[in-house]
Design brief:
Layout: E1 3-8, H1 14-24, E2 29-32, H2 34-37, H3 44-54, E3 57-62, H4 64-68, H5 70-81, E4 85-90, E5 107-108, H6 113-164
Parallel strand pairs: 1-2, 1-3, 3-4, 4-5
Amino acid sequence: MAFNVFISYSTRDLGYVTQVQKNLENEYIDVYVSQYSSPVGQSLTADIKAAIRRCDMLVLIWSDDSEASNWVNQEVGAAAGLDKVVLPMVLKKGLRPPAILGDLRYLEADTDPVMALSTLQKDVFEAALKKETDEKRRQEMMLKFALVVIVLLVVVLAYQASQEG
């Protein structure tokens, strides 16, 4: 199962967003960028809502343009309301992420963009690895539970057969 990342951004920052997408996306991580991910002819609002519900993490590319965007603020609010992990990347010194994110630590891409991108990549990869590990544990537990149920059924059936015989 893929780890799903939703990138919230202003279209004016699309060049940087594309770079972030290329650095994150691989066979285990799907990155949703509405410009590239939303099918033509489909409701953009519905597609974005579904992508936010489906995502494991929202990466916020925060700039003056995204601060002014109603879309970005709604996406961040939706993700926060769904208790999604949000990783903000601030592109301009002194610009603070939205108040709804409270005191979240954020990456300052304005001072050292390479380090910020590297840290983002590390954080996303670690979260994806944790999800995969959690999924495997959950599958192992379900398998063990199923085996216990089967053993109990066999014991019950054997008991019933001995009572009838």
